[in-house]
Design a protein that fits this description.
The complex is a heterodimer of chains A (284) and B (164). Chain A is an alpha+beta fold and 284 residues long. Chain A has a five-stranded antiparallel β-sheet. Chain A has a four-stranded antiparallel β-sheet with strand order 11-12-13-14. In chain A, strands 1-3-2 form a three-stranded parallel β-sheet, with helices on one face. Helix content of chain A is 36%, strand content 26%. Chain B has 164 residues and is α+β, with helices and mostly antiparallel strands. The model of chain B has no long low-confidence stretch (mean pLDDT 97). Chain B folds into two domains: 76 residues, Ubiquitin-like (UB roll) (Roll); 75 residues, DNA polymerase, domain 1 (Orthogonal Bundle), CATH 1.10.150. Chain B starts with a strand and ends with a helix. The chains are: A alpha+beta (284), B alpha+beta (164). At the A-B interface, α2 and α6 of A face β4 of B.
């Protein structure tokens, strides 16, 4: 497996990165951990004449937690997310989700930035970020810009990010209440057949707020406002779970592939959402 | 065709310099440029883990890294872990517990296991299985690999206690 030839750049700061992107346009791509891009380049599904490696850019590897505000640099790896006890205390769903991504070797290289930026429907963090209502911070020739994760994804591999912009970090407010990231996959390392990210807060024994996002069940992650609303005021009893599942099923649009036909995926999505909501509720 | 790059690596403690196209995968640079053939090419799609090496303290599948990305890095391969005359404790335990049959996956298994035990010196069986999940073996059914690693862990810990 030999990818097409490319020129390799390892710039030291973001200005150089943006200058390279402006100079080479469509022919340039930035690379974080490379664990989505390199496989695509090896298969020649992606041709990148100018490859810009972000590994030497200062300040992209930081995890900041301050007054409940979290900022995760684009080059923070899945391993870093798992390894950071302060982050696991502040946003436990991140560790739970990251542990379900790929395998140990891939988690040392795979980054939050790459996972979120790419727009691959199989990636897990986009759904998690939508569930958490995270903000995506971009740098570009016209300065920094922020987009809500819930508005970022347009279609498979198509996002709101312009070709000359770079995802530099994601930021979010530490959630309260219970959480769960539940993922059905065929084997370790596989993308989800279906996965659900859930955050729930409880007040007087009832659901006060809920946020539900689904992974790999459409060409974009699906934050289901109606499924979230279906839980509010309930105690996540069976009828409430059924209502949330019915609402979620109205929002997803899975397609048939080697993980199964559409009917199977819809079935699995329901099972996974019920498990996720139940676990989040128990933890709330 | 892009120009060749001047690549510098420190592999198993030795400085190496060579020319390579940036697109060359690290596994091929190791095997074909440096004649370090312990890391194997299994699936070549970052699934099997036979090509696992340690790069700047991380277990990495060297089929999913361009040699250009590794430029400047410190790399440990199975060649840097024990010698035929003085096996590493993991190697000794793989032999003792029959943790290999055909041996193809073993360099990746042992290289990954060294890092796993560094991070978690006292793993449970479940933690060993989870920590080794990026390495596939088609012979052993994993039972004896898990046994080998658990046994190596207790030997290392016993030696540490004795030293104290």
């Amino acid at each position: 497996m030999i990818p097409a030839a490319f020129d390799y750049y390892r710039p030291k700061n973001m200005d150089e990165v943006i200058a390279l992107l402006q100079e080479h346009g469509d022919d340039a791509r930035v690379m974080a951990g490379g664990h989505s891009l390199i496989p695509m380049m090896k298969l020649r599904m992606a041709e990148v004449p100018h490859l810009i490696d972000l590994q030497s850019i200062e300040g992209l590897k930081t995890i900041e937690i301050e007054n409940g505000q979290i900022t995760l640099g684009a080059m923070v790896t899945q391993h870093d997310l798992i390894d950071h006890d302060g982050l696991a205390a502040a946003v436990p769903i991140l560790r739970e989700a990251a542990l379900q991504i790929a395998d140990p070797q891939v988690r040392y290289m795979g980054t939050i930035g790459g996972n979120v930026a790419n727009g691959d429907p199989g990636n897990d963090m986009p759904g998690v970020m939508q569930c958490l209502d995270a903000q995506i911070n971009l740098a570009g020739p016209d300065g920094p810009r922020t987009v809500a994760a819930r508005d970022y994804y347009e279609a498979a591999y198509m996002t709101d990010r312009a070709d000359d912009e770079v995802l530099v970090s994601v930021s979010l407010t530490a959630p309260t209440g219970g959480y769960a990231y539940e993922k059905q996959k065929r084997k370790i390392g596989d993308y989800a057949t279906a996965a659900a990210a859930v955050q729930i807060t409880k007040s007087d024994g009832k659901v006060a707020t809920a946020s539900i996002a689904m992974t790999n069940l459409s060409d974009v992650p699906v934050w289901s406002e109606e499924a979230s609303a279906a839980l509010i005021g309930t105690s996540c009893e069976s009828a409430a779970l059924d209502a949330a599942v019915a609402a979620m099923l109205g929002d997803i649009d899975p397609s048939e592939d080697n993980r199964g036909p559409v009917a199977f995926k819809r079935h699995v999505a329901g099972v996974i959402l019920k498990r996720a909501v139940t676990r989040a509720w128990d933890r709330a | 065709m892009s120009d060749k790059m001047h690549i510098k690596l420190k592999v198993n403690g030795e400085d190496k310099e060579f020319l390579a196209e940036p697109r060359e995968l690290l596994i091929y640079a190791l095997r074909e440029k440096l004649n370090i053939t312990g890391p194997h090419v299994g699936c070549e799609t970052s699934h099997c883990g036979a090509c696992t090496v340690t790069i700047d303290g991380k277990s990495v599948k060297s089929c999913t890294m361009f040699v250009a990305q590794a430029n400047g890095a410190e790399i440990t391969t199975i060649e840097g872990i024990g010698t035929p005359d003085a096996l590493h404790v993991l190697q000794e335990n793989f032999r003792e517990h029959h943790g290999l049959q055909c041996g193809f996956c073993t360099p990746g298994m042992i290289t990954r296991a060294t890092k796993l035990l560094e991070e978690n010196p006292n793993p449970t069986e479940e933690e060993v299985r989870f920590g080794m999940a990026g390495n596939i073996c088609r012979c052993t059914g994993y039972q004896n690999i898990v046994k080998s690693i658990l046994s190596a862990a207790s030997e290392i810990n016993a030696a540490k206690e004795a030293a104290q």
